[in-house]
Write a structure and sequence with these properties.
Oligomer: single chain
Shape: globular
Helix content: 40-55%
Bound molecules: calcium ion
Number of strands: 7
Order of helices and strands: HHHHHHHHEHHEHHEEHEEEHHHHH
Largest sheet: 5 strands, antiparallel
Length: 407
């Protein structure tokens, strides 16, 4: 069922029921969808079969009277066309995410020492994951992003056939989290798809990996940074993280055809593939695979085992690479030797915020000044470019910022 159909059906239910509801329910939301209410009653038996107590179920749904339309809207959003490499990495690995990562490394040092000792996972990888997943917890403060997890999952289970199976499983897991008392229903918040807390675990992953690192008796990835980071460390450890090893290396390639397959670093070295930094590989017996995410002329990488372990978090090469690159920079490296192929002059994080502010002053942009160039920012840039008679490429470039400063 499309969102439009759901909305139509929803509107129908409202028209038919609004009068009687208004009379019967003078307080509380008046526009309950009776189909959804029936679904909630019907799913109770499934949840109980899955080990959830009736009391926990009723308590969790006590204040949920209708679906969350925002969840359906977000579920409907089509993924973007394959974005160029710079577009993905510039929004994630930048001066701000590195600087805050270094601040957090100092602030949480005693806990990071303990987490590293217990799980053997590099602290910089954990900090990078924290940045990637929630911008070091910043998104948890945003009411426009955070939703009630039980309501989100019930919405998807009821009204999104593509995600219904996933959502039913996650909903039962979420109810079981409430049942353990780790968190109460008013604080069980997450993304529209049910990813929760500082490090964005879906309920079943939470059940597998959540850790009470600070020892207060609750596995609280929403409010405890030690719990959240230890939970990520536990996931990586259980998926085979090799302690004391990195994720991979930026390399330079010899001319000619690219070698393929998995070889030891010693074999790669013999083929003329060396570290871009000029430093030696750390362990020549490690097996590695070559990745060239931006094609010839862009940066090249040799990935070792821990790269695929990071993909247990999110099964995408570019995700794992962004985590690795950000971790290296938080640890003190200067970033890529060979930059992404970017057809314009890059802006700093602050300049990207300035770009957004100036677009907003022109009445072209309504989003946050978060330095993240998503669809809203790109559309605004293109509108400005059209107005100024420039090529409408939507790039967050120094060129376009200079034009904005002049206007
Ligand atoms: Ca705890």
């Amino acid at each position: 069922m499309s969102v439009r159909n759901v909305a139509k059906r929803f509107a129908g239910a409202v028209t038919a029921a609004s009068l009687s509801l208004a009379l019967l329910m003078p307080s509380g939301p008046a526009f309950a969808d009776s189909g959804f209410r029936q679904w909630v009653s019907g799913f109770r038996a499934t949840a109980i079969q899955g080990g959830v107590s009736g009391a926990v179920y009723d308590q969790a749904f006590r204040d949920i009277r209708d679906i969350d339309p925002v969840v359906l809207e977000k579920a409907q959003t089509q993924p973007e066309f394959t974005a160029p490499a710079w577009d993905y990495f510039d929004n994630r690995v930048h001066d701000q995410s590195v600087t805050v990562g270094r601040q957090m490394a100092r602030k949480w040092k005693p806990w990071l020492d303990r987490i590293e000792a217990r799980f053997g996972v590099d602290r910089n990888i954990l900090l990078a994951i924290w940045s990637m997943e929630s911008n070091y917890g910043e998104i948890l403060k945003r009411d426009d992003i955070m939703r009630n997890v039980v309501r989100s999952l019930a919405t998807l289970a009821y009204a999104d056939p593509k995600r219904a199976k996933f959502a039913r499983t996650q909903l039962v897991a979420a109810l079981k989290i409430l049942q353990t008392g780790d968190i109460d229903e008013s604080h069980l918040s997450g993304s529209w798809a049910g990813a929760m807390g500082h490090t964005q675990f879906i309920p079943t992953s939470y059940q597998h990996y959540a850790v009470d690192m600070d020892g207060n008796g609750k596995r609280d990835i929403w409010n405890s940074i030690p719990d959240a980071l230890a939970t990520s460390a536990n996931l990586l450890k259980k998926n085979g993280w090799q302690a004391g090893k990195t994720w991979g290396y930026e390399v330079t390639l010899p001319a000619g055809k690219l070698p393929a397959g998995s070889k030891t670093l010693a074999q790669w070295q013999a083929l003329g593939v060396v570290r871009a930094s000029g430093k030696p590989f750390k362990n020549l017996t490690d097996k590695a695979t070559l990745k060239v995410p931006d094609g010839r002329g862009g940066p090249a990488f040799l990935m070792i085992r821990n790269f695929s372990v990071i993909k247990a978090y999110n099964n995408a090469d570019k995700y794992a690479l962004a985590v690795g690159l950000l971790a290296d920079e938080i640890a003190g490296s200067n970033g890529l030797v060979q930059d992404w192929k970017r057809p314009f002059t890059k802006l700093s994080f602050e300049e990207r915020q300035e770009l957004q502010k100036r677009l907003s002053q022109h009445g072209l942009y309504e989003g946050k000044f978060d330095g993240k160039i998503g669809d809203g920012s790109k559309t605004a840039i293109m509108a400005f470019q059209a107005r100024a008679g420039l090529t409408q490429d939507g790039y967050p470039s120094l060129e376009v910022l200079k034009w904005l400063r002049r206007k």
